[in-house]
Amino acid sequence: MTLPSLAGGALMNISNSPAGLRIAGDWTLAHYRDLKRQMDAVAGRYDDRTPVDLSDLRSLDTAGASLLVELIGCDRLGQLASNTPELSAASRALLKTIRSALHDYCEPIKEPEEAVGMQLLLRIGTAVDTVWQDTLQLLGFIGLILQTLLFTLLRPKRWRMTSVISHIEQTGLDAAPIVALLTFLVGAVVAFLGATVLKSFGASIFTVDLVAFSFLREFGVLLTAILMAGRTASAFTAQIGSMKANEEIDAIRTLGLSPVELLVLPRILAMLISLPILTFVAMLSGIIGGGVVCAISLDISPALFLSLMQSDIGVQHFLVGMVKAPIFAFLIAAIGCLEGFKVSGSAESVGAHTTSSVVQSIFVVIVLDALAALFYMEMGW
Fold first, then answer.
1. Which end of the chain, C or N, has fewer beta carbons within 10 A?
2. Of 104, 122, 147, at which residue does a domain stop?
3. Is residue 18 within 8 Å of residue 50, measured between CB atoms?
4. Taking the model in full, what pTM does it have?
5. What pLDDT is stored for residue 201 in this prediction?
6. Residues 161 and 289 in one domain
7. Rounded to an integer, what distance in angstroms lies between the CA atom of residue 22 and that of residue 35?
8. Which domain holds residue 20?
């Protein structure tokens, strides 16, 4: 039987004893379908001891070489390529390359899957460890801030009042409208809900106490702190993180300056001044919002509203809310600055740590506010 002039083939030569396998023609991608069909035809008619003749093999490409590996075997094909001088140098090199690639290939071992319960415990443990490490870093950073603050207070020439005033404008003055608007609306909502619920008990007049009590003790400082955590902590992280990514922090250290003194202290001091003022603004706005609703829905005049506040609400409730403002301000600014120093140098890292600073600040504010509320309740304040 004569092979086609171009298409390659695999034939069993039964004229010799023992019968041999003859490879001839062009083993290329163009004849892949025909070659595959001939391979299926001779399948099972030869074994590892069957002689193989490659002397009539002409053109060869990667597709044809892969078929020869499938037909003859990886190790044996490498031996035949070395012992067949009729093969061209290119075909011999291609067969050896295919043989080496397949011989060295190791199918990756699939790692055993862990049980769902173990994965859950692993994630919980990782999260707890992360929280613990972040807490230790924050405590260490707070200690560094306090040390630098005490060192700077004794040297008035090192005070950076221009930077502090600039940050007060950014964190306090620019945030006052949104704080006032938000707390005004929340005060109106609280008054409306109180009037709706207390009306069924014939105690609508106590809506005044509800609004004043809630905003002086909790809502004023809590809403302001949450707003500052989302607005200012993220800004601090983005500013310091961008400087870290641009290697400006390293330049500051090279000049012999302290990044904490130059970048952190002005922001800390600005927050310590801005947040109590904004808290006072929030208290006033919330009470005014509640007073507007009381005047419209309950026919409680502003004079009666203020008279009830004066007679029922003591000044200690105002002090309870204001005492928490500096603590929240210090922690929000410290977390925002610390996350900025953690930035590794890429824009993705800046975004990730900005998000982390907002989440951590809000979490810390809410947890501390809850603990303070329990403490004040136990103390009877």
1. N
2. 104
3. yes
4. 0.68
5. 79
6. yes
7. 13
8. 9-104
